[in-house]
């Protein structure tokens, strides 16, 4: 087999996969938790918010760079809060943009389909500490909450989805739950934050083969993930 031959030649494990699939960014669609209107077409689109970040003075929320710049946060009661566009990084190994808004009290993220369960971010899981076979979850505005195994740690989406060709830095997670509108959503396990969803690989019948995310290791400087500070209780037992 080709993978066995390449393993013998390189001295490291190699797996060859022939994919009859199409890679796409999980572009925004109308109506959702992050809402915006395309100034050119006038159509409404959606994406999913990711994690809270800070730069030392400001607090922001992440989503995918290929989402609209002008977005509002739609809370579970369907109240809209306009967000201020801060910056966008969307090339090579990046697909993230940051919006500023009213500073929340805690770094929480929704971890269920109905947006009734909020978890605090307690730790960041780095890419070097992630392994194929790890079980991770994501919450997307289109597909809700789901979990699956990490399949690849050095995936390079085909085509020019990264402001040009993508670098092999993306982490791929098995389907079958991914759709347009999930872009920017949080990837996590328990209260550990892994990354934000960029896009997905779809089969010819339109079903989701796997999705891929940007590790939080690649947040742009000086922005860092906000983490819940444990409450220390003192006094006599």
Walkthrough of the structure:
Strands 13-14-15-18-17-16 form a 6-stranded antiparallel beta barrel. The longest helix has 9 residues, at 2-10. The protein has one helix spanning 2-10, and strands at residues 22-25, 34-37, 44-47, 52-54, 59-63, 72-74, 80-82, 84-89, 96-100, 108-110, 118-120, 123-124, 135-140, 144-155, 170-174, 186-189, 192-202, 208-215, 224-225. It is mainly beta and 237 residues long. The chain has a single domain (2-225), classed as Trypsin-like serine proteases (Thrombin, subunit H, Beta Barrel). It contains 1 helix and 19 strands.
Which labels suit this protein?
237 residues, Thrombin, subunit H, globular, 1 helix, mainly beta
Short description:
By secondary structure, the chain is mainly β. Helix content is 4%, strand content 39%. The strands form four sheets. Strands 13-14-15-18-17-16 form a six-stranded antiparallel β-barrel.
List the helices and strands and how they pair.
Elements: H1 2-10, E1 22-25, E2 34-37, E3 44-47, E4 52-54, E5 59-63, E6 72-74, E7 80-82, E8 84-89, E9 96-100, E10 108-110, E11 118-120, E12 123-124, E13 135-140, E14 144-155, E15 170-174, E16 186-189, E17 192-202, E18 208-215, E19 224-225
Parallel strand pairs: 12-17
Antiparallel strand pairs: 1-17, 2-3, 2-6, 4-5, 4-19, 5-9, 6-7, 8-9, 10-11, 13-14, 13-16, 14-15, 15-18, 16-17, 17-18
CATH class: Mainly Beta
Q: Could you tell me the CATH topology label.
A: Thrombin, subunit H
Q: What number of domains?
A: 1
In CATH terms, what is the architecture? Beta Barrel
Residue share in β-strands: 35-45%
Report the principal-axis shape: globular
| Percentage of residues in helical conformation | under 10%
Measure the end-to-end span: 64 Å
Number of helices: 1
**H/E element order:** HEEEEEEEEEEEEEEEEEEE
> Count of DSSP E strands?
19
Average residue-wise pLDDT: 87
CATH-defined superfamily = Trypsin-like serine proteases
Low-confidence parts, pLDDT < 50 over ≥5 residues?
Answer: 27-31
How does the helix and strand content classify structurally?
A: mainly beta
Largest sheet: 6 strands, antiparallel, barrel
Strand order of the largest sheet: 13-14-15-18-17-16
The Cα radius of gyration reads 18 Å
């Amino acid at each position: 087999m080709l993978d066995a031959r390449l393993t013998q030649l390189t001295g490291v494990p190699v797996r060859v996969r022939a994919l009859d699939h199409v890679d796409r960014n999980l572009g925004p669609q109308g109506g959702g938790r992050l809402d915006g209107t395309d100034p050119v077409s006038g159509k409404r689109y959606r994406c999913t918010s990711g994690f809270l970040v800070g730069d030392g003075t400001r607090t922001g929320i992440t989503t995918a760079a290929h989402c609209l710049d002008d977005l509002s946060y739609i809370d579970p009661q369907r109240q809209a809060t306009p967000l201020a566009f801060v910056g966008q990084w969307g090339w090579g190994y990046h697909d993230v943009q940051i919006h500023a808004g009213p500073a929340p009290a805690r770094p929480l993220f929704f971890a269920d389909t109905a947006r009734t369960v909020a978890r605090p971010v307690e730790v960041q899981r780095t890419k070097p500490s992630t392994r194929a076979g790890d079980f991770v979850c994501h919450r997307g505005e289109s597909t809700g909450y789901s979990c699956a195994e990490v399949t690849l740690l050095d995936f390079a989406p085909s085509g020019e989805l990264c402001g040009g060709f993508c670098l092999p830095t993306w982490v791929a997670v098995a389907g079958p739950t991914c759709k347009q509108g999930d872009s920017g959503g949080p990837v996590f396990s328990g209260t550990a934050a892994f990354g934000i969803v960029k896009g997905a690989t779809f089969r010819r019948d339109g079903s989701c083969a796997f999705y891929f995310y940007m590790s939080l290791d690649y947040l742009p400087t000086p922005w860092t993930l906000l983490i819940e500070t444990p409450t220390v209780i003192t006094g006599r037992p």
